[in-house]
Protein: Dimethylamine methyltransferase MtbB1
Amino acid sequence: MAKKYFVRYGDGYGAEMTMDEIREEILLGTQDAAERGQIPPLTAEEQEHLLEICTMPAKFVAVEPGKEVVMTNDEGTLKVSVRCGLSIDRTTALLINEKILCMDSAELAHIDYSYKPIKGIIHDEVCAMHHAQLNTIIPVFYGAMPNLGLYTRPDGPVGNWAELLPAGEIAAARAAQEEAMEHAVRDIVTVAHKMYEAGADGINLDTVGASGDADALAAFRAVKKIREMHPDFPVELGMAGEFILGMHGQLQFEGKTLAGLYPHEQVKLAEAAGVTIFGPTVNTNSSQSFPWNIARVCTFVKACSEVSNIPIHPNVGMGVCGMPLTDSVPLDAASRADKALVEICKIDGL
Structure:
């Protein structure tokens, strides 16, 4: 009887597979990504390397000494205090990130993690950044999401394209997105400028494209303005999904239509905008196995890494880049995903 190995599915559920079954899952996963992204699949050697990682007997695996990569994080100050339920302030959470978790950088963030609400309390956030910089040694970014949906009525000034599109009001939906972009760019640039003056080591635009191609275009335009104002200010940009949703469908940046772009295409536009760290994202399919998911991830991220001229820090949070869709990600899956990204995709950080 063939030996079976413990694997997980995209929802975190545990199961067992033989080595041949895992090998087949890896093949199917890389073929799926190659077909969708019109990119080369993993080589036979890379697939065998991934098979070796998936079948390692240890619960937790790691890279060899000397092959470690740096780590950045998004919403980092909230993961310790809010999500873990610890009664501490955000600057204390930053110290935990630095002195206990040994992060290479950290991010100050507000629980209302979008640039629109942040702009209204920027004076308070500037004070928090001052305290953070006084107490920490590692680079501290400030971050939030473009989140174009917040600009729609009744909470915002523009029409809601999620309601207009089903009603067949295509022109009105597109006009609403274009107007929302203008508001978002102004808010992002304002917050970034204030954080630059407060001594932040960089700005992070997180979950870019969550509201579609207009969301992504707002981020790219904002980054370009930020870099024109402050050429020495690092900008990290993390995507919301593996391809950009065409909620508008006609928007372009630098002559390239945004709708439908995959990571290896997204990163070139990020470079053109002035992004200094790019975070590609590949969605986890909760009904597929970890070997299938991580094969897709490595196929997309490898293609992205090969064409990129800026550091690549794949998003390895809940439900993306091989991580199961669970609140607390299992270390067996997380460590294997990280190892595969470093060794196969030649990434610069996580």
User: Anything to note?
Assistant: The radius of gyration is 20 Å. The longest helix spans residues 170-197. The longest strand covers residues 202-208.
